[in-house]
């Protein structure tokens, strides 16, 4: 399923798979497919309704708009950059992208392609991302 989502994204993300060994050492499991589907079929402002329909903790945890409270207290300066390390499913990426001028993501080789797809799907229209 995640390959289909990646194909639909424009601009299409480019993943650095140099150290990826076709094995997902960390994953939230099959729920990632559900989250990918919600991301693919809904705009971010529709996530609340999608969360209610899915009615499970992982979709709420990964898609709720309340996660921005982790960073919304920080006064990003104009022109600032953010390096997001271990970005998981991209929960904080929306807030970082709207608050900083540039966002770079750094993930680890064991993180699966489904997680990269979730994070990329959440930023399907953002052009200021660098995938490392």
**How much β-strand is present in the residues?**
5-15%
Question: What is the overall pLDDT average?
Answer: 75
Count the strands?
Answer: 3
Shape: globular
Oligomer: single chain
What pattern of helices and strands is seen along the backbone?
Answer: HHHHEHEHE
* Unreliably modeled segments: none
Distance between the termini: 23 Å
For the biggest sheet, the summary is:
3 strands, parallel
Structural class: alpha/beta
Specify the number of helices.
6
What radius of gyration results from the CA coordinates? 14 Å
Neighbour order of strands in the largest sheet: 1-2-3
Give the helix level as a range of percent. 25-40%
Protein model, in words:
With 132 residues, this protein is an alpha/beta fold. The chain contains six helices and three strands. It has helices at 2-8, 31-41, 47-54, 57-63, 93-99, 113-122; strands spanning 81-85, 102-106, 129-131. The chain has a three-stranded parallel sheet with strand order 1-2-3, with helices on one face. Helix 6 links the parallel strand 2 and strand 3 (129-131). Helix 1 (2-8) runs parallel beside helix 6 and helix 2 packs parallel to helix 6. The protein is globular, with a radius of gyration of 14 Å.
């Amino acid at each position: 399923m995640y390959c289909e989502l990646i194909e639909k994204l424009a601009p299409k993300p480019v993943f650095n798979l140099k150290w990826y060994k076709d094995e997902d050492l960390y994953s939230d499991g099959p729920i990632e497919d559900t989250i990918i589907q919600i991301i693919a079929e809904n705009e971010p402002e529709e996530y609340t309704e999608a969360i209610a329909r899915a009615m499970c903790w992982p979709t709420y945890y990964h898609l709720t708009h309340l996660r921005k409270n982790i960073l919304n207290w920080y006064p990003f300066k104009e022109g600032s950059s953010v390096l997001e390390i271990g970005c998981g499913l991209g929960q904080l990426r929306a807030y970082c992208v709207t608050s900083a001028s540039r966002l770079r993501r750094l993930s680890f080789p064991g993180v699966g392609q489904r997680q990269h797809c979730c994070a990329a799907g959440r930023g399907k229209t953002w052009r200021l991302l660098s995938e490392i």
